[in-house]
Amino acid sequence: MLTGSTRRPRQLTLGGAAAPLVPSPGNGDSGLGAPCLGSAMERYFALNETKTGLGIPLDNNFIVLDNGIGFNYTTDSSFVGFVYKKAVKAGKRVLIYEGDTDACGLQTAPIEDIWVPFMGNGTRATDQWTPAGPLTTDHSRPLGLPLTQPWRPFGVVPTGRRVQGGFSMAWAGGQVTFASIRGAGHLAPLYRPAASYTLMAAFQKGEPLPPPFYPHTAA
Hints:
With about 220 residues, the protein is α+β, with helices and mostly antiparallel strands. It is about 25% helix and about 15% strand. The protein has a domain at about 80-205: Rossmann fold.
């Protein structure tokens, strides 16, 4: 039995016309995500109201495709740690997040295994190896930021809902935060809208993430 909101989702209206209501796994963001959703996105972009609103010619078709014909995806940097290093040095706040059921990310670039050691004190291994390469160059050397919030679960807003958002940890008093959204795939807001909103709102306001709905005892 799945728990969560049992209320019927509101009908989306675009340009006076009701958009098709397509239920999706985790509807209402009950805390249950899914690596693959149904046809909601294709149906949404097939609407003339959507195309008009985004300035897309009405005779264009939308398909979910990566690395298709004419799609040139060229990597010009094997590691972008220098971007985060520059942001931290400038006093900017940094948020890095992932969906913990993202098949693409977990297979090709496990975000946690790269950025957690980079922000902190490395991998504690002699070779400093990560899936993005060793953290031994001028551009990839760990920043050595102090860990000020150990790995902990967080809830979703409004506070008190019995739904888990995910897990997070922070360095330098919250200047840098890493978060893993529970049950989210590659497009986290699509799979876990409430958890994603909770994370983004807290980051924009500079506030801590809400506590989990269940008691948490640090190991």
